[in-house]
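Hey, resending since the last one bounced:
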Amino acid sequence: MDFALWMAGVQQRTEAALERLLPSAETAPTRLHGAMRYAALGGGKRVRPLLCHAAGEIFGAEGAKLDRAACAVEMIHVYSLVHDDLPCMDDDVLRRGKPTCHVEYDEATALLVGDALQAQAFQVLAAEPLAEPAQQLAMVTLLALAAGSRGMAGGQAIDLAAVGQSLSLEELEYMHIHKTGALIRAAVLLGAHCGHADKAAVESLAHFANRAGLLFQVVDDILDAEANTATLGKTAGKDAAQGKPTYVNLLGVGDAKAKAAGLRDEAHQALAPFGAAARRLHELTDFIVERSF
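The structure tokens again:
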């Protein structure tokens, strides 16, 4: 199967799994459940579920188990987007090509959507056997760390504090290893754990995920500077307008693209121990870059 067909298949099965795993819009409280589904369904490239499935396939993980792990990560990601768009954070009106959750509903509902999606993610991850009990408990802990103050939420706090500030390259990378990279790392490792990867494999995949996470952010910064709103599905140029430190304003577009090329090479190199079995992760690495340039 070629990459485009494989990717479309994972995206479709992720959408179907989210449809099943999210509460019905007819279940009380209907407004909240409708808003959760509005935020989570029908949009996005599903990069994190794709990474989860690609890593799990290396170790022969069952598709149904990967669906649950992938949906758990995607629910955390969507919750972060809903909160990120709120007026108290980035104050944006467009996400995935449609009005943001607080615009379509209201701020209080959007806040509750994020809270509920975070809780739903852990319910999805814990409700059915995905691995041996001790391993599954470790998977829950992994996702919690990736989402919390030592991961995504902590990275967002650093990002907010850095508005209008000048960061070094090392400080910028530290921020994005947490804000963006932590959840990408979790997606890769949760997929691997569904297939019972050994310690050495997990270490190699963690190194790959660290490179891929930074790569994703560098490309995102370039897109914010160069792409238009219609292409992005969110407001273009927002980071520059808000005075946020980015790879583009620190390095310039040319050097940011060179940085992306270097990270792409490092990500590919980290997959060497897996040979041809890592084909999909190689392809996803290229996809992360080629979505823009």
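The chain is about 70% helix and 0% strand.

Sorry for the duplicate.
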